Structure formats: C-alpha cells, structure tokens
Amino acid sequence: MAGHGFYLKSQASCIGVAILFCTSLVISSFAELERLEHPVKGDGSLSFLVVGDWGRRGFYNQSHVAFQMGKIGEKLDIDFVVSTGDNFYDNGLTGLNDQAFEESFTKIYTATSLQKQWYSVLGNHDYRGDVAAQVHPALRKVDSRWLCLRSFILNTEIAGLFFVDTTPFVIDYFTDMDHTYDWRGVTPRKAYLDSLIKDLESALSESTARWKIVVGHHAIKSAGYHGDTKELNDLLLPMLKAYNVDMYVNGHDHCLEHISSLDSPIQYLTSGAGSKAWRGDLNQNYKEDDLKFFYDGQGFMAVQLTNNDAEITFYNAFGKILHEWKALKELHSAV
C-alpha cells in the first residue's frame, strides 16, 4: 500500500490475542490492529453513547451521569457505549482483583440499556496502574460488557471506529517524576508509535466505511484545561485529514465540547465529563467560529448515524440537552 508517510518509520508490531465474545474478530490482511465487528440495527442505523474520565466509585456525580445515560440509552436504543479513557481514578487498576473495577463500573452502570458492549481506550490515569490487568480478558469474566484494548478497530456496516492509544504519544509522561507509569509493552516508545501510526494509516486508507470516527483519550483540539495535544497535531492530524475522517472523539479535559475544523470536515468532540468536572477552564483564545459548544460540568454524548446523516447530542448530568449538531454526509454540511 502506498502510504502518505505519516508514521515515523515502519516497524513490525505483534499480532494481538484473538478475542471472541458477543462481537466477532475479523482477521484482516493488514491486521496488526485487532478488528472487531458490531452489527447495526435492522433499519441500518447505529447509535451509541460516549463517556470519559468517569471511574470514581460513583462520586463526583458519576452515578447521576450513569443514571441519565441509562435513560437516554433506552430512548435511543443504543447499540454500545464508548469510553474515552481514564476509566479508573486516580491510578488505574492495581490488578485483576482490584475492587475498583466493580465499584466504579459494574455497580454504577446498572441500567438495562447500558448492558451492551463497552469499547474502551486507556487514559493517562489508567497508565498509572496495571495496564495489563485493565486490558486482560479475565475482566470480561467479571463483567462481560468490558472490552479495553490499547488500539483497535470497530467496524459496523456504516461506520468505522478507530481506537487509538494516545498516552504514549505525550512525551511529558515519560519524564514525569511525580507519577509512575506502566510502560510495559510500550517501550521503546519510538518503535511503538512507529508501528501504531503505520497500522492506523493502513486501516484508514483501506476503510470503506461511510463514516470514519477516531477515538482517543487526549484531545487534538480542545478549549479546556489541557488544550491541544501537540504530538497528536503533529503525528495524527495530517493523517486524519488525508483520509477524510469525520470525527475525532476524546476525553482528558473534564468537560463537553464541540469544535469544528476550519480546513477539513473533522469535528472535534470532547466527552470527558463522566464524573469530576473542572469549572471555569475555558480557553478564551479559541475563535467563536470553530468553538461551537463548551460546557464545564458533568455529562455525556450521544451519536446517532444513518448512511447519510449524523446527529451528535450532548447531555448534562440531569439529562438536559445542551447542544445538538447534525450533518449530511453527502454535503459535509452541518446545522
């Protein structure tokens, strides 16, 4: 495949362990990244919720957000849930038997509508714990909804979701003397990123999905506390533009926000308000014509897709609609 050269250098990466449960693993011709499939509804539509930065044993309004997710999930008849990372605070899981898994996940998201598959990426706080435990298949015996991998692809009939492990991109974590990170399987960093970027480029270039959605923990564009992630702007954004990605979905900033790209169809969507939120952290330097929405409280996001239409809705912890955005695929236009 003739690539655009967005990876640092070509590197081989290990084939992931095959996973087979309520979704099925598809063996891909380019598959260093694991590929999963999830069916759409009978009418060809797809709907899912997105929540991030949530795992606090129900505190900081996590339980309130979970309750409203259950109500909206039932209303929309969601197909699955996406987690944008920082799944367990403050320092990830200590191991496979860490009670935080059930106390922050199983016992919190109890609504019938949320008993669907959860597709999760890791956040920087997850990397402060036992990463191998959080991505281990044994957790699915505790709660079959749980699927967390470093990077993977989820194919549906109308959308491709590309989950990216963004924490190793951020160089500052490797020099952070205040916290300990679990870099097993990541170091040497350059080889890890080379392989990941190469595999992601292959997947995006070969995808025939009507909608392309990339999911990571860290923001590419954000008006929140952490702001833009330089490494993602340098290494991922050119690729996303080249392969006509429609949405980049992230957490990390504890807010809800929508930023529209001024030079591409990409919509930057932050859903990192699953529990503790940061009040008053709006970056005033963002222009009004690209920052469509910002909310510094708790909440979550819903995505509804058909072959030609997309609808994004942000909700607060009381289930109130805060912001809606709709697009027609043919025209790349929004209202």
TrEMBL record:
SUPFAM superfamilies linked to this entry: Metallo-dependent phosphatases (SSF56300)
Organism: Salix purpurea (Purple osier willow)
Catalytic reaction equation(s): a phosphate monoester + H2O = an alcohol + phosphate
Alphabetic keyword roster: Glycoprotein, Hydrolase, Iron, Metal-binding, Secreted, Signal, Zinc
Record has Glycoprotein as a keyword: yes
Binding annotation for Fe cation 1: 53, 86, 89, 254
Any one GO molecular-function label of the UniProt entry: acid phosphatase activity
Transmembrane segment boundaries: none
Stored PANTHER family: TARTRATE-RESISTANT ACID PHOSPHATASE TYPE 5
UniProt cofactor note: Binds 2 iron ions per subunit.
Annotated Calcineurin-like phosphoesterase domain residues: 47-255
InterPro entries, sorted: Acid_PPase, Calcineurin-like_PHP, Metallo-depent_PP-like, Metallophosphoesterase_PAP
Enzyme Commission number(s) of this protein: 3.1.3.2
Cellular component, GO, one term: extracellular region
Compartment(s) of residence: Secreted
Name listed for the protein in its UniProt record: Purple acid phosphatase
Family according to the record: Belongs to the metallophosphoesterase superfamily. Purple acid phosphatase family.
Main location per the UniProt record: secreted
Binding positions (Fe cation 2): 86, 124, 217, 252
Swiss-Prot/TrEMBL cofactor(s): Fe cation
